[in-house]
Amino acid sequence: MPPGSAASRSTKAPSCFSVVRQEGHRQERRKLKHYNLDAIISAGYRVNSTRTTRFRQWATQVLRQHLTQGHTLSQQRFEQNAAELEVAPTLA
Length: 92
What we know:
Blueprint: H1 6-12, E1 15-23, E2 26-34, H2 37-46, H3 50-69, H4 75-91
Helix pairs in contact: 2-3
């Protein structure tokens, strides 16, 4: 990617979103930065430093937790299990 191209700018600059939050009895509007997850992950796996090593360890741990605790679902497995559950009462 040449510097200054649309693709290189999209990975560097975060998008800003305005979010309204309830704080006590008042509502506060704040701007939150959202970064491109694909860009963060690809940079974290291409650079070698102690900081990126910690990132890779953290990312692996979070991914493992999501998969083992069911936070991340396989749509195909979900639909198959739902179909099996619908058939189960007729078998009893």
